[in-house]
Amino acid sequence: MYHKNILVAGATGTAGRAYVEVFSESGYRVKATVRPGKGKGRVFTNTKGVEPIEVDLRNKNAIEIAMRDTDILVVSILGRGENPAADEDTITRMLVDAAKRAKVEHIIYTSVYRANEKTNVPHFEVKGHLEKYIESSGIPYTILRPCTFMDALNADWIKESVLQKGVLASPTDLETPINYLFSKDLAQFALLSLSNSELIGKVFNLGGPEPITYKEIIRVMSDLLGRKITYHQIPINQVEEQFGFDMAEMIRYFNKNGFTFDMTLTKEKYSLTLTTINKFLKDCGWGTASTEKNSFSRREI
């Protein structure tokens, strides 16, 4: 099992990095795709068992070359450009087609929670179509539908704002419940699919241990830092101007519907350990941040 080669497409994203780390630590040989000329491969240079490879994922021939000697394909793609959903659709289909020609044994596809529902969120709904494409490919698959990643709470700009200004800013409503999932918990479940045949040919919704709102997250941050943190809601039109329609529509959907999933049965059935927001922030150093005179360095993250 541990001599198999895994190709992670989209290795520098939140889920992609978690996949690379968890698979390589478990003894698999991992090829991690990075965009050409961006220098992002340096992230994996000193990681044992990981080979960073520059691949233009919009180039069919480049994908074919990257797919050589691949046993397991992990797809963790977000589209870019003026139409991110269409871009994601094109890339993912080329990856699946190349995997079929290369006789890849297993595809692990990173979808999103509620991809199979009508959400009007373009990069959600395209994943629903791509799930069907993978299911019809004839390649054994495991489809994972994660909720929102809690990793974003440790982003540079969020941590800087909280530590320097005492303000947590987000476009998400203060009372919107979301099952934030740690990316490494997702990767651990993906790892399980490589040794548990029960997970082949199935789709799994995955979330954190419980729904939590920004009101509760502020309380956790305040307790860890030993001082009061306030909240600033970023206007949705600002999100749309800076990050595009797709991202703004996702936030609108969250604020209207929430994004929650009860993980109790899945957690018990597969003996999963799910990371809480409190533990995640503690592990990221938030518990000690207040003792460092609120100093901030990008090297800390």
TrEMBL record:
<keyword id="KW-0602">Photosynthesis</keyword>
<dbReference type="InterPro" id="IPR044256">
    <property type="entry name" value="HCF244-like"/>
</dbReference>
<protein>
    <submittedName>
        <fullName>NAD(P)H-binding protein</fullName>
    </submittedName>
</protein>
<dbReference type="GO" id="GO:0015979">
    <property type="term" value="P:photosynthesis"/>
</dbReference>
<dbReference type="Pfam" id="PF05368">
    <property type="entry name" value="NmrA"/>
</dbReference>
<keyword id="KW-0604">Photosystem II</keyword>
<feature type="domain" description="NmrA-like">
    <location>
        <begin position="4"/>
        <end position="281"/>
    </location>
</feature>
<dbReference type="InterPro" id="IPR036291">
    <property type="entry name" value="NAD(P)-bd_dom_sf"/>
</dbReference>
<dbReference type="InterPro" id="IPR008030">
    <property type="entry name" value="NmrA-like"/>
</dbReference>
<dbReference type="GO" id="GO:0009523">
    <property type="term" value="C:photosystem II"/>
</dbReference>
